[in-house]
Specification:
The complex is a heterodimer of chains A (478) and B (475). With 478 residues, chain A is α+β, with helices and mostly antiparallel strands. Chain A has a four-stranded antiparallel β-sheet with strand order 2-3-1-4. Chain B has 16 helices and no strands. Chain B has a single domain, classed as Formate dehydrogenase/DMSO reductase fold (Up-down Bundle). Chain B: Keywords: Cell membrane, Membrane, Transmembrane, Transmembrane helix.
Chain lengths: 478, 475
């Protein structure tokens, strides 16, 4: 008790006001027992201090439950309301967005943000509400005047009765604490240290606030005033792209053209190919002094032939020495590729079988288009390989003929050769004799042929019969 | 007033009718305070200084590469058509996933009254916040003009005269990740206030006392304060539990709401959440196992804690493995050509190496945790969890890059190649993470002292009940 006596003496000497009396305990069980006795003795302005949350202490001391959950609920309700109103107003009313044909007020899409804001504001309610109800932050606390109180955050439990309690009587409380097994029973005095914030802190705070406002003021002033000087661009090349468009000029090159022509003597990547492979010409005519001039004549010729519908005089087409043979290796895979490419590009006019009656032609005939020139059948003898070499056929696909446009832009050179190979196969298919078929396979082919003929015959008969019936059925015009 | 539990006790053994002790040794409340405070109070060890210097150097690398990116433009990354997301988004999802363990341990294990969480939750929560900081960096710079990233916020703009589009998962993501970061920070800070008060009361230096005094807000340990504090903690846990599940769900919406083959699947939300918990726990173990021996915390972070976490890794790893299988099943069962192609391409296309790295690390390696030997040997745990971290990074890489590199239009297919900037930013983000984590170890209480003390109090209480019981039977 010597500690408390000295404390009392100090108090009387300096006439400090007594805040209350504390006792220390070292275990939860003794603390809880003491709390119950203090409560039963009728004290109400009491408190216990512990290094961790002691379960059951609110009951032992008679502490009422907290309203904190209600604060969190208010936060949550505010969150969901604000979130829904915000989304509906922003996306449906003030600036209606049309997104994938969804309704402007599409609640399912608004759920995630509403959920997040509900959680956020409910958490703010719980967090800030807790500190507010606890009266924290509070840096000046009479309890902290006792140096022994530092151990409350380590391993010591304190029980405290406030001097404002109606039944407070210092000697009685001290006796009660001693009975409960409390150690180091002490009086706590009011903290009379200055509570004023040091003036240098206030000055520093004011200065920093003033300084932080300056940039904002500059921005605000700039926003509302006009200026004759140009706008400041932090990243100039992101505001104005230095890249030029095709028809624009540039000062970088001497000719001032932004679009650069091919550099002489170069070939674009992936375009290095044998000239005869890309033109179908075996060697250029001896009449032409230069290959390029010959090619120019050749191109003009094919343009003329398109407009005049085929020139009568001996043209450059006839003087050219064409490649006789397909430069690609003709095998099943090439023919397959050719068939596919033919199906995509050629069959719409020339028909799947090359007969010249594709879907476009059928449609044109139906519409009776007078300007329509019927696509050639590929099965004319003049187009057979002895009269129309592979190179020439290739050149026709490349540059076009009559109404047919050139396909160099759409079909790669190697695929044009595949088409040439396939056209040859088509021509053979319409003209083949049974002798070309190996002996072993002839029988099955004959059988198939007979079957097909029989089916065709039956179909024809059926059609005839149907036609007769429908004639009978239809009412005769009176 | 102490309870003698031998240091070498194997607390992974379950005894019927008894709770396994979670604090080992002849430990008192004061011992817990000493053990935790010495980490921050003694001068930094050489290994800490070395680790900090390396991490800080990597952080500078991240800062410099970001400056280079902002100055030059996003072309410095390997992001090219059609893979516009690339590594920045891979890294974002990776870090957000890591950031799930902390709040999960704090909130969900709290709600389930899993008391073993008390000695690991603080570090795990810190890890969450640092991982979310790393995650937030990437979408921030990925927007291209990072100085206009504030356009994501719904504010009345005088430049745009328009509002954000609230039907977009990318906007939901902004709200989800920022809410998650904020609530995790509040939760972490609130949990730390009583321990910061301990630091304040122990500090001998005036400035230290002032700093911790300000941070601890004048905490006095009053039982009224504790009661409201516990209530607030339970409320925050209840709010954070659905929040932690919602965040990775919404991150998965970024993918699942799109039409890209391999992304447009309903399994994504649960699959992403399981993967996030998986990677988060792996990261917690990767950090805690070395930290517990380096910081001398073996009595508080026991083998039982690691054993429990390994079991969670095993469970979530198996869920992730099941999800991988289900994706393939649905691709086959759904009979959508693009979807089937996307998954065949994942496993056997040009990115097969990434896919099988992911499967090996994520599905096969955690299966070793079926054996107790693997769950209780620290160095094995570290090796396996590092594999899991690698696997989970690859999972995000596989999802982002394989699907984008080959979608509907074959003429637009491409192969992703990272640049040195991609590498520097990935490694630099680890620098940011470890710089923050190492500072945390030095400046903040690494273990939740107040909760560990209350666990110890329960342990005392149980022991007294046993003594009484024994005494009663003797008579």
């Amino acid at each position: 008790m010597s500690a408390s006596e000295t404390a009392t003496e100090t108090v009387s000497e300096s006439e400090k006001k007594i805040h209350g009396v504390t006792a220390e305990f070292t275990s939860v069980d003794t603390l809880l027992a003491a709390c119950r006795r203090v409560r039963d003795a009728g004290y109400t302005k009491t408190d216990a201090f512990a290094p961790f949350a002691v379960h059951g202490i609110d009951k032992a001391l008679g502490i009422k439950p907290t309203v904190l959950p209600w604060i969190a609920l208010i936060g949550g309700v505010t969150g969901v309301t604000v979130a829904l109103c915000m989304q509906i107003w922003m996306n449906a009313i003030d600036y209606p967005y049309i997104i994938s044909g969804k309704p402007f007020i599409s609640l399912p899409a608004f759920i995630p943000v509403a959920f997040e804001l509900t959680i956020l504001l409910a958490s703010f309610g719980a967090f800030f509400g807790m500190w507010a109800l606890n009266g924290l932050p509070r840096f000046s606390n009479p309890m902290f005047t006792n140096p022994r109180f530092d151990r409350v955050t380590d391993d010591t439990f304190f029980l405290f009765v406030d001097s404002k309690d109606e039944r407070f009587d210092q000697a009685g409380v001290e006796r009660l604490f001693a009975d409960c097994g409390g150690e180091h029973i002490d009086t706590v005095v009011e903290d009379d240290s200055p509570t004023k914030v040091p003036s240098f802190l206030i000055v520093a705070w004011l200065v920093s606030v003033a300084l932080s406002i300056i940039p904002l003021l500059i921005v605000a002033k700039m926003r509302v005033t006009n200026s004759s000087s140009p706008r400041f661009h932090i990243f100039f090349d992101m505001d104005f792209s230095p890249a030029r468009d095709a028809q624009q000029t540039t000062s970088i090159f001497a000719d001032n053209r932004a679009a650069r022509p091919d550099i002489p003597g170069t070939v674009a990547r992936g375009q290095v190919q044998d000239l005869s492979f890309t033109t179908g010409i075996e060697k250029l005519s001896s009449n032409a002094p230069k290959p390029s001039e010959h090619l120019v004549a050749f191109m003009q010729e094919s343009d003329d032939s398109k407009t005049t519908g085929g020139a009568a005089q001996k043209s450059v087409m006839d003087t050219t020495v064409w490649l006789d043979k397909n430069p690609r290796k003709v095998d099943a895979s090439l023919l397959e590729r050719g068939q596919q490419q033919f199906g995509i590009y050629c069959s719409v006019c020339h028909g799947m079988n090359g007969g010249g009656n594709g879907l476009v032609n059928q449609r044109a005939q139906k519409l009776s288009q007078s300007t329509w020139i019927q696509p050639s059948s590929l099965h004319q003898e003049t187009l057979y390989s002895d009269k129309y070499p592979d190179g020439k056929l290739f050149s026709t696909i490349t540059n076009g003929i009559r109404k047919m446009p050139g396909y160099a832009g759409q079909i790669k050179a190697k695929d044009r050769w595949a088409i040439v190979a396939y056209v040859r196969a088509l021509q053979q298919s319409q003209n083949a004799s049974i002798d070309l078929v190996p002996q072993a396979k002839r029988a099955s082919l004959e059988k198939e042929k007979a079957g097909v003929e029989k089916r065709l015959k039956e179909e024809a008969e059926e059609a005839q019969k149907k036609a007769g019936e429908s004639k009978k059925d239809s009412p005769k015009p009176a | 007033m102490s309870l003698a539990i031998p240091n070498g006790l194997d607390n992974t053994v379950e005894k019927p009718g008894q709770r396994a002790p979670l604090v080992l040794g002849d430990t008192t409340y004061h011992d817990i305070t000493e053990t935790v405070c010495q980490v921050a109070e003694r001068p930094p060890s050489k290994s800490w200084v070395a680790g900090f210097l390396v991490a800080f150097a990597l952080l500078q690398m991240l800062g410099l590469t970001i400056a280079y990116l902002l100055y030059t433009g996003v072309g410095v990354w390997g992001n090219r058509s059609p893979i516009f997301w690339g590594w920045p988004i891979v890294n974002f999802v990776f870090w957000v996933g890591i950031g799930h363990a902390g709040t999960l341990i704090s909130a969900i294990l709290f709600l389930f009254r899993q008391e073993w969480r008390t000695s690991i939750n603080r570090a795990a929560e810190a890890m969450t916040i640092f991982a979310v900081a790393c995650a937030g960096t990437f979408p921030g710079i990925h927007v291209g003009r990072a100085w206009l990233a504030f356009w994501l916020a719904p504010y009345p703009s005088l430049n745009l005269w328009m509002w954000p589009q609230f039907r977009s998962p990318l906007l939901w993501d902004v709200f989800a990740v920022s809410t998650y970061g904020t609530v995790s920070l509040l939760f972490w800070y609130m949990g730390m206030v009583p321990d910061l008060a301990t630091f304040r009361d122990r500090s001998t230096n005036k400035w230290r006392r002032m700093a911790y005094g300000l941070l601890s807000l004048g905490w006095s340990g009053s039982s009224r304060h504790w009661m409201r504090y516990e209530k607030a903690y339970a409320l925050l846990a209840a709010f954070a539990a659905p929040l932690v599940l919602s965040v990775h769900t919404i991150v998965s919406f970024d993918f699942a709401v799109s039409q890209v083959p391999g992304w447009h699947t309903t399994i994504f939300p649960p699959y992403f959440v399981a993967g996030a918990i998986f990677s988060g726990f792996a990261m917690v173990l990767t950090l805690m196992v070395p930290a517990r021996s380096m910081l001398g915390l073996e009595k508080l972070i026991t083998i039982r804690h690691m054993d429990n976490m390994c079991k969670i890794i095993l469970a979530t790893g198996s869920i992730v493995g099941l999800a991988y299988g289900t994706e393939f099943f649905i691709a086959w069962y759904g009979q959508v050509g693009e979807e089937q192609f996307a998954f065949t391409n994942r496993a056997f296309g040009p990115y097969w190496w990434a896919y099988w790295t992911m499967v090996t690390c994520n599905v096969i390696s955690p299966q070793l945790f079926w054996f107790k030997k693997f769950r209780t040997t620290p160095w094995i745990i570290v090796v396996i969890t590092i594999f899991v971290n690698i696997g989970m990074w690859f999972e995000r890489f596989v999802i982002v890059c394989t699907s984008l590199s080959r979608d509907y239009l074959p003429s637009a297919w491409a192969y992703f190649s990272p640049t040195w900037v991609d590498w520097a930013m990935l490694i630099g983000s680890f620098g940011l993470f470890f710089t923050l984590f190492l500072l945390f170890c030095r400046l903040m209480p690494v273990i939740n002292m107040s909760e560990t003390k209350s666990t110890l109090a329960k342990q005392y209480h149980m022991a007294h009940l046993d003594d009484d019981h024994a005494a009663a039977t003797e008579h």
